[in-house]
């Protein structure tokens, strides 16, 4: 509003001037502003000149497209030509361009000439467009280099060869010394030496370079820095020396390898070819490199001079794209600068001027300030760092395939190396490539992996046909070949080793199967080929097909022949002597002390504690028997009663407890030690001794394991093996024979250990595994066959095919005698063999023999003692006793004539009424006893006896023990007891029977008896009444006695029939008595099922006595 007021107040002429001024600016904006841009190009490089012009044309289209303010900016190409890398001529041409008011200069691309032009551009503030590596540029100034920095390229190359491909050797072939700058990062950071060779085609030495690498067989991976138009010649030469197979890898560093004519790669026979590119993928939309190249080629064809320019350089697609992007960036910078100020060309500037072009600095700043999202050229997005270098480059990594180059991945400063390759497609291609191939297999003959079917001792070379071989590895190769459709030939390694590295003149030299793979004489190495770190540095391995560890094999220790008295070994001979002496001494002391102490003299039966006859059970034999029983941890029928004898017994028990416990513990320890007498149990035992030598396969992975081990035990073992002559073996079979023949332990893989111990029971595995590793199939480094073979191995493992093959060759094939798996392992427990306890059986036999001998003496002595009574000869008496002993009778009766022989008459005290008397005297001298007094007559009923005649009288009980020395044992009256008697009543023994009843009449004249043919069972608790047949009842008079004698039974049961008030007596029936059975005339064992019954076993030949508790 205020401006309008001011404009109206102005004079008319001033208002007219202002209107004309504002009307002039739009009209001027529609005028074209031509800006010259210079280029210094080498003579005869028509392709670059045409590319420059085409790029300027495309930049003008970009200016017109983005010129929203219609400033009419237009670039005019101005070209100067120089001789190749002439810095003076380049400076002079640059001065000419300054005089022609150029706003920017492009070129030249040779190092010296570029440096001269950049110096002038920095001096006068003219932007200098560059599309080369720029190795020598120190002062960036006004240099605008759209080429990636050489350090970034070197870092990307290093990441690829070290992180993606894991190269360990690199040979660098270059054609220009300046190009070595871009490998600075690789050379500084690569962990392995890099061999440098110059490719000089002018001197015709390039063939010698390739031949040298082929001859030395030391390098199979190359970085090749030669112009893209030399690639075909290089590959043709490499093919001549068979260096284009799958085992060779090449990284070509020229940007334009992927755009080379595919015919150049016809020499490739499986080699890995990789290159880097900064061009955008060809399939992207928009104006691309293909369109630009087509325009350049069209321009060359239209230019008449092209036919005459025979020395013109080839068209470089990447350089053309960089030039295109550089001029497009210049156009974007001009548009940005024109928004703030008019673009005024540099006028009046010459090489002798002291001033420069001031807008040049703002133009450079505007170009470097362009954001990546605002401009994307043919070589990707652009962003510059503080020093003017392009910082956000994206390098595409391309791999060659029969269908052309495809992307492996990409690299940039932020993410590093990113692999985008489709491995499934690659695997399919490798499987396709393997079809119909005949692979060369290197191996060594070894059971059970590879065994020759033919004559092994023949001097002729062994066949390479797989049909002439057998073994686990043959079956495995057949399964893999079936999956991947390839065949193979067998070639034995000349030195019969797997491969070991040695240092010769400071260089690592390999032998065996590893060297066969390194020199590419074989495609696969198969066998018990262990995957190790050292081997994997120089060759490749598939996925392990078998896992194992290092173990020790040794001959089985034969059990020592057990002695007859091995059970005596836990204690020494003196200890056994002391134990025997202590047993005898304690027996003697116990006998003496028992004789002296009054408390060991007891009545002979507990029912008659008032008897004048005392008995001491600790006679000499019982003392020895008691002491021996306590030593054997067993009891005896004799027990001490006195304090003194119990003290002896207690201390003897304590002594036997310690002795027996010590013996038991020592016996267990002795048996355990006997089982553990193996001289070695593990690697530590092996390392601590020198008697048993040990070793492994020379040059194998096991030897390398000990050689490089840091574990003290394994280091000590390697010192022994490396210093002892002859302990390192050449083959496993020789080592096994030595193990069986000598004191030698062999260290080998556990799979081989298992194989041999399964077939030879004389061998055993000692200890566990020392490490863990696996068997794999070896391949040359970089082999394309690794992944498909590894995948096939995983399939075979998943389907249990490999497990079945292993079971077949380890458990079934070539086995004559199968060794029990338990025998090959040392267990902690084992059963005792007969040999170790046979002495116990011998001692038992000796004891039984001694008992039989003593029994014979007792038998003859007893017969001899009976001769005076029976009036027979010793032979006749022994024969009669022998006949009785061989019968099955459990009861024995003395013969009539033996009973008739009476002992001497008793003393005058006979019949004096003493309570203790001799049953033998009573039988012999019954007339001198007082006559019996019978009670008054009592009524009797069957099965029931009167209770009269016993009131006020104590019923007596007596017991009879086994007679000894022609005398019956003393009988005593037992108060408050009942008894029953089995009596023998044969017809010839009526006198004896009468004597018995006479004795009963005199001893218990008032006791009423009942005579039956068996026991009579009375059970008050259950009410069961088992009556027996009564033969006679009443007092022991002559009438009853005659009934008994005339009854047709040899044995009858006699019991008192009087009843006392109170509970009924309980009859005890146990196995120590016999119950008469009329059917077979034999005694049956009786059973007692009631508690509280008491019995006494009596084995008298005349009768048994049954006692019951009242």
TrEMBL record:
Keywords: Cell membrane, Disulfide bond, Glycoprotein, Ion channel, Ion transport, Ligand-gated ion channel, Membrane, Postsynaptic cell membrane, Receptor, Signal, Synapse, Transmembrane, Transmembrane helix, Transport. SUPFAM superfamilies: Periplasmic binding protein-like I, Periplasmic binding protein-like II, Voltage-gated potassium channels. GO terms for cellular component: postsynaptic membrane. SMART domains: Lig_chan-Glu_bd, PBPe. Gene3D superfamilies: 1.10.287.70, 3.40.50.2300, Periplasmic binding protein-like II. It comes from the Eukaryota. The record marks 680 as: Crucial to convey clamshell closure to channel opening. GO terms for molecular function: ligand-gated monoatomic ion channel activity; signaling receptor activity. It is found in: Postsynaptic cell membrane. Residues 1075-1094 are annotated as: Disordered. The chain crosses the membrane at residues 575-594, 651-673. It is a multi-pass membrane protein. Residues 438-812 form the Ionotropic glutamate receptor C-terminal domain. Disulfide bonds join 761-819. L-glutamate binds at residues 530, 535, 701-702, 749. InterPro entries: ANF_lig-bd_rcpt, Glu/Gly-bd, Iono_Glu_rcpt_met, Ionotropic_Glu_rcpt, Iontro_rcpt_C, Peripla_BP_I. The record marks 795 as: Interaction with the cone snail toxin Con-ikot-ikot. Signal peptide: none annotated. Residues 448-519 form the Ionotropic glutamate receptor L-glutamate and glycine-binding domain. This is Glutamate receptor ionotropic 2. It comes from Cryptocotyle lingua. The gene is GRIA2.
């Amino acid at each position: 509003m205020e401006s309008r007021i001011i404009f109206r107040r102005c004079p008319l002429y001033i208002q007219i001037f202002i209107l004309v001024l504002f009307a002039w600016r739009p009209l001027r904006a529609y005028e074209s502003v031509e800006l010259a841009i210079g280029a210094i190009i080498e003579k005869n490089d028509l392709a670059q000149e045409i590319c420059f012009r085409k790029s300027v044309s495309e930049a003008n289209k970009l200016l017109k497209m983005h010129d929203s303010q219609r400033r009419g900016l237009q670039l005019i190409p101005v070209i100067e030509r120089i001789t190749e890398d002439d810095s003076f001529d380049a400076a002079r041409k640059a001065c000419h361009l300054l005089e022609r008011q150029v706003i920017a200069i492009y070129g030249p691309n040779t190092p010296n000439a570029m440096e001269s032009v950049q110096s002038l551009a920095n001096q006068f503030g003219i932007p200098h467009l560059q599309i080369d590596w720029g190795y020598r540029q120190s002062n960036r100034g006004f240099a605008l280099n759209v080429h990636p920095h050489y350090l970034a390229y070197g870092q990307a190359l290093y990441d690829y060869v070290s992180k993606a491909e894991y190269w360990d050797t690199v040979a660098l072939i270059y054609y220009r010394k300046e190009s070595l700058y871009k490998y600075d990062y690789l050379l500084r950071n690569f962990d392995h030496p890099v061999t440098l060779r110059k490719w000089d085609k002018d001197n015709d030495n390039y063939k010698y370079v390739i031949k040298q690498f082929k001859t030395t067989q030391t390098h199979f991976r190359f970085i090749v820095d030669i112009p893209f138009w030399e690639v075909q010649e290089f590959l043709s030469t490499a093919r001549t020396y068979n260096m284009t197979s799958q085992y060779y890898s090449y990284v070509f560093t020229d940007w334009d390898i992927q755009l080379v004519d595919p015919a150049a790669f016809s020499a490739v026979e499986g080699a890995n070819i990789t290159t880097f590119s900064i061009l955008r993928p060809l399939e992207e939309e928009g104006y691309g490199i293909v369109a630009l190249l087509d325009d350049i080629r069209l321009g060359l064809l239209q230019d008449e001079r092209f036919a005459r320019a025979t020395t013109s350089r080839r068209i470089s697609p990447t350089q053309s794209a960089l030039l295109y992007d550089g001029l497009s960036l210049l156009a974007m910078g001009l548009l940005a600068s024109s928004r703030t100020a008019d673009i005024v060309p540099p006028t009046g500037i010459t090489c002798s001027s002291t001033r420069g072009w001031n807008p040049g600095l703002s133009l450079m700043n505007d170009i470097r300030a362009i954001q990546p999202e605002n401009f994307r050229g043919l070589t990707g997005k652009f962003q510059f760092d503080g020093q003017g270098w392009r910082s956000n480059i994206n390098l595409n990594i391309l791999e060659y395939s029969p269908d052309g180059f495809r992307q492996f991945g990409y690299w940039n400063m932020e993410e590093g190396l990113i692999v985008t390759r489709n491995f499934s497609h690659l695997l399919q291609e490798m499987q396709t490539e393997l079809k119909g191939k005949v692979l060369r297999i290197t191996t060594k003959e070894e059971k059970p992996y590879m065994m020759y079917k033919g004559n092994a001792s023949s001097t002729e070379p062994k066949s390479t046909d797989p049909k002439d071989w057998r073994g686990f590895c043959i079956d495995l190769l057949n399964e893999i070949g079936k999956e991947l459709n390839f065949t193979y030939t067998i070639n034995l390694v000349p030195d019969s080793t797997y491969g070991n590295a040695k240092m010769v003149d400071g260089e690592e030299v390999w032998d065996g199967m590893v060297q066969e793979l390194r020199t590419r004489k074989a495609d696969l190495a198969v066998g018990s080929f262990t995957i190790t770190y050292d081997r994997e540095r120089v060759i490749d391995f598939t996925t392990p097909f078998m896992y194992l560890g290092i173990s020790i094999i040794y001959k089985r220790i034969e059990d020592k022949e057990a002695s007859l008295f091995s059970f005596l070994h836990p204690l020494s001979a003196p200890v056994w002597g002391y134990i025997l002496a202590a047993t005898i001494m304690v027996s003697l002391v116990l006998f003496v002390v028992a004789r002296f102490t009054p408390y060991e003299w007891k009545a002979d039966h507990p029912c008659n504690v008032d008897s004048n006859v005392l008995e001491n059970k600790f006679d000499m034999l019982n003392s020895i028997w008691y002491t021996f029983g306590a030593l054997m941890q067993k009891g005896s029928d004799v027990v001490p009663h006195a304090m003194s004898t119990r003290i002896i017994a207690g201390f003897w028990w304590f002594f036997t407890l310690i002795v027996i416990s010590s013996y038991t513990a020592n016996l267990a320890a002795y048996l355990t030690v006997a089982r553990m007498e193996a001289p070695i149990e593990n690697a530590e035992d092996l390392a601590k001794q020198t008697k048993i030598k040990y070793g492994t396969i020379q040059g194998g992975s096991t030897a390398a394991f000990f050689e490089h081990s840091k574990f003290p035990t394994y280091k000590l073992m390697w010192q022994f093996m490396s210093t002892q002559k002859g302990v390192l073996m050449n083959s496993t079979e020789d080592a096994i024979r030595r193990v069986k023949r000598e004191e030698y332990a062999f260290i080998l893989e556990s799979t081989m250990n298992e194989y041999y111990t399964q077939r030879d029971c004389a061998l055993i595995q000692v200890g566990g595994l020392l490490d863990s590793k696996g068997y794999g199939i070896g391949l040359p480094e970089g082999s394309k066959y690794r992944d498909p073979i590894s995948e096939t191995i995983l399939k075979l493992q998943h389907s249990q095919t490999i497990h079945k093959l292993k079971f077949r060759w380890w458990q079934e094939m070539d086995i004559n005698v199968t060794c029990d798996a338990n025998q090959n392992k040392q267990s902690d427990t084992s059963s005792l063999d007969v040999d170790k306890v046979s002495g116990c059986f011998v001692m038992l036999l000796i004891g039984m023999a001694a008992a039989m001998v003593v029994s014979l003496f007792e038998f003859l002595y007893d017969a001899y003692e009976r001769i005076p009574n029976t009036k027979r000869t010793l032979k006749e008496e022994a024969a009669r006793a022998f006949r009785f002993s061989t019968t099955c009778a459990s009861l024995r009766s003395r013969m009539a004539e033996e009973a008739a022989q009476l002992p001497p008459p008793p003393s005058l005290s006979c019949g004096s009424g003493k309570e203790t008397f001799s049953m033998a005297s009573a039988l012999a001298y019954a007339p001198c006893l007082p006559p019996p007094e019978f009670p008054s007559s009592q009524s009797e009923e069957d099965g029931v006896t009167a209770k009269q005649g016993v009131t006020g009288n104590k019923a007596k009980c007596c017991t009879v023990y086994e007679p000894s020395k022609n005398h019956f044992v003393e009988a005593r009256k037992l108060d408050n007891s009942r008894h029953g008697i089995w009596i023998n009543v044969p017809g010839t023994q009526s006198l004896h029977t009468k004597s018995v009843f006479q004795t009963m009449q005199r001893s218990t004249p008032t006791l009423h008896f009942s005579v039956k043919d068996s026991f009579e069972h009375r059970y008050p608790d259950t009410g069961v009444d088992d009556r027996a047949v009564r033969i006679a009842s009443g007092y022991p008079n002559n009438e009853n006695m005659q009934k008994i004698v005339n009854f047709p039974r040899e044995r009858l049961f006699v019991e008192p029939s009087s009843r006392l008030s109170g509970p009924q007596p309980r009859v005890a029936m146990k196995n120590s008595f016999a119950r008469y059975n009329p059917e077979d005339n034999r005694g049956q064992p009786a059973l007692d099922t009631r508690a509280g019954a008491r019995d006494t076993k009596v084995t008298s030949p005349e009768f048994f006595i049954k006692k019951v508790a009242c």
